[in-house]
Design goal:
The chain is α+β, with helices and mostly antiparallel strands. The protein has helices at residues 2-9, 87-97, 112-119, 216-228; strands at 12-24, 30-42, 46-53, 58-63, 67-72, 77-82, 122-131, 134-142, 146-153, 160-167, 175-184, 203-204.
Length: 229
């Protein structure tokens, strides 16, 4: 809870996230993919996340208090949308409404303490250890759908150093892990920090969640008609 309150009360911060996640195949085999992210948050209503996937695809997502913009540099496309509210509201909108991946989004919200109080029903202290050269407390916790471990830096700044999530109700119980480094709670924010530069020649597209889809019955009917031509 000290970690949750520390992060939830921070006015601004930046952090690097190196993560990996399992993709469970039909055979049951797990294949791991990875991602690098640099995240900057300035409360109440500024957010920037630059990411590079293991296949080299680079993207950036920015919320400037009025608009969301996401750019995919590999495919030279971008999408924008009006957005009101704060960082907490925007992260929920990213994940729930726009169906965008945003690993460990809850750690970036000011309501992290309340979320943990509501969801976590068991916590165990594992050990005091050393991770990435940082003395840390290893904690294991459980929710209804996810078991997680977090290594929390010892001292006056109890930030998370490593997080492991196990999706225990999903086939194969896949895991997500994240190494968090270079925490900065007084980041240098300049005018361009929360500005997106659209690459020359990039095409504007809609977010996938905004594209209307036909009801399943209509899609089947349409496919059947096409098959008879």
């Amino acid at each position: 809870m000290r970690m949750a309150e520390f992060l939830g009360n921070a006015n601004a911060f930046s952090v690097d996230l190196r993560s990996g996640y399992d993709a469970v195949q039909a055979s049951g085999q797990k294949i791991e993919f990875g991602e690098l992210r640099n995240i900057t948050v300035s409360r109440p209503d500024r957010l920037r996340a630059e990411s590079e996937r293991s296949d080299g695809t680079k993207t950036v997502a920015v919320f400037d208090g009025k608009d969301i913009a996401v750019v995919d540099f590999a495919n030279k496309v971008y999408a924008t949308e009006k957005q009101q509210g704060n960082v907490d509201d925007t992260l929920v909108h990213f994940v729930r409404d726009l169906h965008l991946r945003f690993p460990l989004a809850m750690l970036l919200t000011s309501r992290l303490p309340a979320e943990l109080q509501q969801r976590v029903w068991r916590v165990d202290y594992v050990e005091k250890t050393n991770i990435q050269g940082i003395p840390a407390h290893h904690i294991a916790a459980r929710t209804d759908t996810v078991d997680f471990q977090v290594w929390i830096a010892d001292g006056n700044e109890p930030y998370p150093v490593r997080v492991v999530l196990t999706y225990k109700d999903s086939p194969g119980q896949p895991q997500f892990w994240g190494q968090l480094s270079n925490w900065n709670f007084a980041p240098k924010l300049v005018e361009d920090t929360f500005v997106v530069r659209i690459p020359d020649g990039a095409n504007k597209i809609a977010f996938a969640a905004e594209i209307p889809t036909l009801p399943s019955k209509a899609r089947r009917s349409s496919s059947a008609k096409g098959a008879t031509k």
